[in-house]
């Protein structure tokens, strides 16, 4: 998500798959009713493969507690949402069928949704595990759902969670991500999604999220007023309606943007169905579609890795920044014309770096922002020097100021990757990136894995130059 202002949108999200969290000392959690002897928790690597065993029958929770959650979960989402367009009140009910494949037991799920932070007033309306009520609680942007026991490795459960929230009415701060403003409704990360407890607050516009891919997400929307809904998915209708249903596969989140006056411009590129949603007074759908098709084609060619979904949606939003999600991007209507092409190319680059291969965006923003910016600027020929002093690239988003976050993680990150390309050779570099993307498709990865893929492609000793910019990794 580059630091450029613009218009907003509404996002839908239903996905999951994950990697593990190290075990902690056992202690009971609110709403937990231990059922017998505790199950020991094993320590596991934070990021495992997201592909897990087939979902087995629910009801496998055993007595005990381990004080442990994990990202290493394969989950599907079924979301039923009712939206009051005139008031911005939303009621969301989500059913999550999840299989634990983290290598050890878990006794809670940590579900991310920014509705807890931006949807004031916010309230949990229901929570159950395998049909039994539990007491879910809010921690920052996370819903903590106790399982009432331990879900062993390889076992499955069904979580149902419901909430009531109200969209904001402006675009200042982070409000643009979850708002009803200037005739549009925009919802980002509104679906409770398997995640880890990460802080929402940061001194910049960085993305404080980590979400694994889900093999299946289904969304049903019921509105009190007919709207056009911009969302990912090739089968989505484009006419005004009060009811909407669609499904997505292999996505990390699902965005929604609603407006009564969207014009939808359709086109195709390399077999990909492209839809551009525009509003009166903003960028034309033709313009958004033209730039999007060019970016999709040129970036896929440069990577040698096909765009991973059947359709792509670009939507004009009412404020905030450009924003990515799998198979869809938001482009603010007030984006300067001189910045539009770059912004679209950057957000589309995220279809590979974050959409296809995910990462912990709060803890390792370089892995997606640096890589996406390098791809976009390489294709456009717009690599440039940074306007901030050279800095380390391995901090969390909370470690960078508002004025230098973009210049460091994006611009310096892109330049660092380009210098590695120059050092090991263009062919070797892009072969390494291609190998990295294919090996981690629809999984969660890390900065270290990205850099190690580059190191594996050359006999040149890159450790000294990597240590200077990634001191915690080398």
Task: Outline the structure in words.
- It contains eight helices and 21 strands.
- The protein is of the alpha+beta class and 474 residues long.
- The strands form four sheets. Strands 1, 2, 4, 5, 8, 9, 10, 12, 13 and 14 form a ten-stranded mixed beta sheet that branches. A five-stranded mixed beta sheet has the order 15-16-17-19-18, covered by helices on one side. Strands 6-7-3-11 form a four-stranded antiparallel beta sheet, with no helix packed on it.
- Helix 4 packs across helix 5.
- The longest helix has 20 residues.
- The protein is globular.
- About 11% of the residues have low confidence.
What topology does this entry show?
Layout: E1 73-84, E2 89-100, E3 106-112, H1 115-118, E4 123-129, E5 132-133, E6 137-139, E7 142-151, E8 156-166, E9 178-181, E10 184-187, E11 193-195, E12 217-230, E13 241-248, E14 256-259, E15 263-269, E16 272-278, H2 285-303, E17 311-317, E18 323-325, E19 328-332, H3 337-349, E20 357-359, H4 366-380, H5 405-424, H6 426-439, E21 443-445, H7 447-455, H8 463-469
Parallel strand pairs: 1-12, 16-17, 17-19, 20-21
Antiparallel strand pairs: 1-2, 2-8, 3-7, 3-11, 4-5, 4-8, 6-7, 9-10, 10-14, 12-13, 12-14, 15-16, 18-19
Helix pairs in contact: 2-3, 3-4, 4-5, 5-6, 6-7
């Amino acid at each position: 998500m580059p630091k450029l202002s613009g218009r907003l949108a509404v996002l839908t999200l239903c996905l999951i798959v994950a990697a593990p969290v190290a075990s902690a000392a056992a202690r009971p959690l609110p709403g937990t009713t231990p059922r017998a002897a505790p199950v020991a928790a094993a320590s596991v690597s934070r990021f495992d493969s997201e592909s897990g065993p087939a979902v087995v029958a629910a009801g496998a929770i055993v007595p005990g507690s381990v004080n442990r959650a994990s990202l290493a979960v394969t989950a599907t989402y079924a979301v039923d949402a009712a939206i009051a367009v005139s008031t911005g009140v939303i009621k969301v009910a989500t059913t999550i069928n999840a299989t634990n494949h983290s290598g050890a037991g878990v006794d809670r799920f940590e579900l991310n949704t920014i509705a807890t932070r931006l949807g004031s007033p916010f309230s949990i309306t229901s929570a159950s595990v395998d049909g039994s009520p539990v007491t879910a609680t809010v921690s920052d942007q996370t819903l903590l759902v106790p399982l009432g026991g331990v879900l062993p490795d390889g076992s499955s459960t069904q979580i149902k969670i419901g909430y009531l929230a109200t969209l904001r009415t402006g675009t200042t701060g982070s409000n643009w991500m979850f708002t009803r403003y200037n005739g549009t409704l925009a919802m980002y990360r509104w679906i409770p999604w398997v995640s880890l407890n990460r802080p929402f607050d940061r001194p910049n516009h960085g993305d404080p999220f980590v979400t694994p891919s889900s093999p299946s997400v289904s969304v049903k929307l019921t509105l009190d007023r007919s709207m056009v809904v911009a969302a990912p998915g090739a089968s989505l209708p484009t006419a005004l309606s009060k009811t909407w249903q669609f499904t997505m596969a292999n996505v990390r989140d699902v965005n929604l943007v609603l407006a009564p006056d969207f014009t939808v411009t359709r086109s195709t590129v390399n077999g990909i169905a492209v839809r551009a949603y525009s509003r009166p007074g903003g960028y034309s759908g033709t313009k958004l579609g033209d730039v999007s098709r060019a970016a999709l084609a040129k970036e896929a060619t440069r990577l040698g890795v096909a765009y991973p979904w059947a359709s792509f949606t670009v939507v004009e939003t009412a404020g905030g920044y450009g924003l990515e999600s799998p198979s869809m991007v938001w482009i603010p209507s007030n984006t300067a014309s001189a910045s539009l092409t770059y912004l679209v190319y950057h957000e589309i680059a995220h279809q590979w770096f974050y959409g296809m291969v995910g990462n912990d965006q709060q803890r390792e923003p370089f892995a997606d922002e640096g890589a996406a910016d390098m791809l976009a600027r390489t294709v456009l020929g717009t690599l440039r020097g940074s306007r901030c002093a050279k800095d380390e690239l391995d901090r969390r988003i909370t470690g960078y100021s508002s004025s230098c976050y973009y210049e460091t993680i994006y611009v310096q990150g892109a330049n660092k990757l380009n210098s590695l390309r120059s050092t090991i050779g263009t062919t070797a570099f892009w072969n390494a990136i291609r190998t990295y993307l294919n090996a981690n498709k629809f999984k969660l990865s890390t900065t270290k894995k990205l850099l190690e893929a580059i190191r594996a492609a050359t006999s040149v000793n890159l450790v000294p130059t990597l240590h200077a910019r990634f001191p915690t990794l080398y």
